[in-house]
Amino acid sequence: YQTFTGNLKWDNKDVTYRILNYSPDMEASLTDDAFARAFKVWSDVTPLTFRRLYDGTADIMISFGKADHGDPYPFDGKDGLLAHAYPPGEGIQGDAHFDDDEYWTLGSGPVIKTSYGNAEGATCHFPFLFEGQSYSTCTTEGRTDGLPWCATTADYDKDKIFGFCPSELLSTFGGNSNEAPCVFPFVFQGEKYDSCTTDGRTDGYRWCATTANYDTDKQYGFCPNRDTAVIGGNSEGEPCQFPFTFLGTQYSSCTSEGRSDGKLWCATTSNYDTDKKWGFCPDGGYSLFLVAAHEFGHALGLDHSNIKDALMYPMYKYIEDFSLHEDDIKGIQYLYGPKTGPDPTPPEPQFTTSSPILPTKSTPSEKTTTVSTTVHVDPSKDACQIKEFDAITEIQEELHFFKDGYYWKISNKRERKGPFLISEKWPALPAVINTAFEDQLTKKIYFFAEKQFWVYTGNEVFGPRKIEKLGLPSNLDRVDGAVQRKYGKVLLFNGETFWRLDVKAQLIDSGYPKFFDSYFGGVPTDSHDVFLYKGFLYFCRENFYWRMNARRQVDRVGYVKYDLLKC
Amino acid sequence: WCVPLKSVYVTFPGDVIKNMTDKQLADEYLQRYGYIDVLQKSGLQAVVSTSKALKQLQKQLGLEETGSLDQPTIDAMKQPRCGVPDIRN
Question: How many CB pairs under 8 A join A and B?
Answer without folding.
Answer: 93
